[in-house]
Amino acid sequence: MRPRPKDSVALLLLCALPLPRARGETLSLSDCLARAREQSIPAVRAALEEGAARASLRSARGVERPQLRFRGQLLRSDDASTNLPDDNNATLILEQSLNPLSPDWVRARQSAAQARAAALARAETDADVALEIKSLYFSILKDSDAVASLDQVSGQLRGLLDTVLPKFSIGRVPAFDPVKVRLALADLSRQRGLTRARLDARRRTLASAVGLQDASGLVLAPVAGSRARPPGDLSAEVLQGDPTLAALGQETRAARLGATAAARARWPDLIGGLEYGYADYATSGMTRGWAARLGLRVPLYDGGQISARTDRARAEVRLARARVEERRQFLLARLARVRGEARTHRGDQQVLAALLPQVRQAALAEVKRYRLGAAGVLEATDALNLWLNALLQERAAYYSYLTDLATLERLTGGRYTAAYDR
After folding, report:
1. For residues 94 and 293, is the Cβ–Cβ distance under 8 A?
2. Which run of H or E residues covers position 54?
3. Coil, strand or helix: which one is 292?
4. Given phi > 0 = left and psi -120 to 50 = alpha, else beta, which region is 277?
5. Which of 54, 122, 144, 190 is the most exposed place for a label (fewest CB within 10 A)?
6. Structure confidence by residue, pLDDT tens digits, 111-162
7. Ranges of each domain in the chain
8. In which region does residue 167 sit, left (phi positive, over 0), alpha (psi from -120 to 50) or beta (all else)?
9. Sheet of 287-297: strands edge to edge?
């Protein structure tokens, strides 16, 4: 069973070569994807595995071609009369398996299926890398927007505190008011610190993935989610385009051929040969000649080895078919879930985006009412927190929707595509 690297961002994001510094360049999502395909360890490993599978295929196909070899022997003895007619020889030998149904010929077809599976596994790895890069890219943009929203609301709270403190100093507001505003500022500062730490970690991870040593100058271009529309039914596209399912299908074909080859090990095998060269009892009398032969090779008793290998190969076929069915069921269930989540996230984002101007206006109006003495500090801080939550939730829904679209691209093997770059 071939190893399948997935479900781990850590696998994607190492680079074996010295990395250049970012130097403040702006990278789009397309730039990051192109760089990651060249830098990620899983992509390099998949390419090496594909090359090894192709080399094995070339080796296995050798049975389909005649084999040419040289045989030479020189014998010296005190009594040449005891020598055999070919004890001294120099011969070219050409051999060929004449039975295209022999296990060796079937194994050549098995190696071809394994090579195709390795090529599909490389496409699978590239798709996994692309999904992880997109998810990471969107997470960084989401955290960046969250920091900006926290700064925006914190500015309003600091302005509110500047209003509260003079009133408190002359006894016009209770001591609770400045305490409440300071606690709200402390809470936002804590959220900002945690978000910033998460953002810095993700930026470093992305910088490593795209081949940059220093993430401090990394700038990501915004994405145009308005161009990415929710898809319709993609069941056919998923079942036909998922590279993992296609690779498993080729592995199943290879397993079937392996079982066939194991069972045919009991079949007779015909070997044809042609010899041309010199031979004699002694080197002084060597004469030129040729010989053609046809050989039959039949296994009679092997202690149960062929039966054991056949049973194992058939078990591998059943296991491969089970993996195909398991992947198929997973794809359909995952597709239904992701499509539902995409619709939900897009609906949430549209509702929140439409409400944001009203929420902002209401929050600023409540702050103004507090300054005029028409509202309490709880109403003002709650209104600002409501505005902040709307900002954060709208951005979270927006980037979650884009991540859903990226997941659909992965599940369909690129048959469904969404446009992100501006």
Report:
1. no
2. helix 41-60
3. strand
4. left
5. 190
6. 889 889 988 888 888 999 999 999 999 999 999 999 999 999 999 988 888 8
7. 9-65+103-266+310-411
8. alpha
9. 67-73, 88-97, 269-280, 287-297
User: Under CATH, which number does the domain 9-65+103-266+310-411 receive?
Assistant: 1.20.1600.10
Q: Which residues, in sequence order, are CB contacts of 319 under 8 Å at separation 6+?
A: 255
d(CA 353, CA 393): 10
Mean pLDDT, range 57-82, rounded to an integer: 80
Contact 221, 421 (CB under 8 A): yes
Calpha distance 381→184 (Å, rounded): 7
| DSSP secondary structure of 90-110 | EEEEEEEE--TTSHHHHHHHH
Six token digits for residue 263: 């069972």
Confidence (pTM)? 0.77
- Beta strand 269-280 with 219-220 is unpaired
Structure tokens at 411: 């599940």
How many whole angstroms separate alpha carbon 318 and alpha carbon 259?
A: 11
